[in-house]
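Task card 7
Instruction: Convert sequence to structure tokens.
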Amino acid sequence: MATSTTASVTASHVEFGETIRAGLLGGLVGGVVIWIYEAIVWVGVQHLMPLAGIPRNATGLVFGKDVQDSLGAVAYVVGTGIHFFFVFAWGLVFAWVWPTFAHRGYEATLVAMFFAAIVWIVMHVAIALVSSNHPNYLDPNVIIGGFVSHLFYAVPLALIVKHRLAANG
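Output:
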């Protein structure tokens, strides 16, 4: 009896550890991919900001443009920290919920599409609550651009989590 209990505790510990690793890795890759998307689309195509504006963007969204400007170069570090804190946190959330969807036979990219929309809505409602300096979240261009950019985060995240957890399942 003690052996089976130990084995199940060890197995769940390994699964938990792999879930954490999969979520963090998926979040990291998704976080880099979304920045590549922003560099190509927001900077290169739409000219919404300079390339150097991407890392500090989160600082302005959370604390406002005045704080972003007053921090100078530190805004890049703060913005990068905010960005990666949230890509890791959302990566862990996805890795935690993914097995439920996988068990029911859903495809990771389908789940990622809905996850991207949820992430965008939650993040931008939170930003609207803590800061008055944000894009007009009722503007269709902002909504569509936000959802698309979050797809570029969620799809790589989902595929990595799916692959990593399937390899250990």
